[in-house]
Design brief:
This protein is 41% helix and 23% strand. The protein has 8 helices and 11 strands. The protein has helices at 20-27, 84-89, 110-119, 121-144, 149-162, 179-186, 190-202, 218-230; strands spanning 30-35, 40-42, 51-56, 58-64, 70-77, 81-82, 96-99, 103-108, 171-173, 206-209, 212-215. The strands form 3 sheets. It has a 4-stranded antiparallel sheet with strand order 1-8-3-6. Strands 2-7-4-5 form a 4-stranded antiparallel sheet. Strand 4 (58-64) and strand 5 form a beta hairpin. Helix 3 (110-119) packs across helix 4 (121-144), helix 5 packs across helix 6 and helix 6 packs across helix 7 (190-202). It starts with 19 loop residues before the first helix and ends with a helix.
C-alpha cells in the first residue's frame, strides 16, 4: 500500500470502524481474487465457507426455482460483503453469487473471520446490524409474494429508488434496470414488467431517458402500489 493512500479494506462496510493498523493486521489473513463478468463466485449448496469482501465490480445474489426460473435477490457492489452465514453456521451456501462485471474480491477463511469477530467488537456489531437488515428485507419479500405481480414490481422499483434519490420525491436509476432483471427479482416474466412500466409512463410516474430510468414521483408510485393492493 502506498503511503498516504487509504487502505483497500477501509472501503468494506464491516471494517469502517477500524484504524489503519487494525486493517493491516486483518489483511494478513486475506487473499485477493479476480473474477470475470459472468463467472460464478459461489454456488448454491456449495460447501465452502469463506467470507468475501468486494473491492471493485458488481455481483448478483440469485437462486433458481424448481422450474428453472432465476430469482435474483439483490446486487452487491464495492464495499459490500457476503458469505457470512456459511462462515457462522458452517452450512452450505444459501444462494449463487455471480459476477455481473469484472470484479475483485478479498477472501477470508471462516475460522479467521470468526477470530476477527472476537478480536474486534466493531466488526461483530457491524455483522449483527447487517444480518438484521437482511432478515427484515427477507420478511418484506415474503410478505410481498402474497401480493399481485404489479404490486411486487412497484415495491421493487421503490427499493431501487431508495439508493438513487434526487431530492425528496424523485429518483434516477442509472443504468436503467432491464425488465428481465426486475422480473427475476419478483418471480414473474418480462412482459408483465413491460406492461406496468407502460402504465406508469402514461401516468407520468416514470420516464425513460438515455440509459436511465427516472422515477419522477416516488410518492405517486407508492400510492399506485397501495391502490393496486386495495383492489387486489
Amino acid at each position: 500500500m502506498e503511503p498516504g493512500r487509504p487502505h483497500p479494506l477501509a472501503t468494506v462496510d464491516l471494517f469502517r470502524g477500524l484504524d489503519t493498523a487494525q486493517l493491516q493486521e486483518l489483511e494478513r489473513y486475506t487473499r485477493t481474487r479476480a473474477f470475470k463478468a459472468g463467472q460464478t463466485v459461489v454456488e448454491y449448496q456449495d460447501d465452502s465457507h469463506d467470507v468475501f469482501f468486494i473491492l471493485s465490480g458488481k455481483l448478483k445474489v440469485t437462486i433458481f426455482s424448481e422450474a428453472g426460473r432465476e430469482i435474483a435477490f439483490r446486487e452487491l457492489t464495492a464495499g459490500q460483503s457476503f458469505g457470512e452465514l456459511s462462515a457462522i453456521d458452517g452450512q452450505p451456501r444459501s444462494a449463487n453469487v455471480i459476477a455481473l462485471t469484472d470484479a475483485t474480491v478479498v477472501l477470508m477463511t471462516a475460522s479467521d473471520f470468526m477470530a476477527a469477530l472476537k478480536r474486534h467488537p466493531d466488526i461483530a456489531i457491524a455483522v449483527l446490524k447487517k444480518l438484521t437488515l437482511l432478515v427484515r428485507a427477507l420478511s418484506e419479500r415474503v410478505h410481498e409474494f402474497a401480493e399481485k405481480v404489479e404490486v411486487r414490481i412497484c415495491h421493487e422499483l421503490l427499493r431501487l429508488a431508495r439508493d438513487a434519490m434526487l431530492g425528496t420525491n424523485a429518483a434516477r436509476l442509472r443504468p436503467a434496470p432491464k425488465h428481465a432483471e426486475i422480473a427475476s427479482r419478483v418471480n414473474t416474466h418480462r412482459e408483465a414488467v413491460s406492461r406496468l412500466f407502460s402504465k406508469l409512463a402514461r401516468q407520468g410516474i416514470v420516464q425513460r431517458g438515455q440509459g436511465e430510468l427516472v422515477i419522477r414521483d416516488v410518492q405517486a408510485l407508492a400510492a399506485y402500489a397501495r391502490q393496486l393492493h386495495s383492489h387486489g
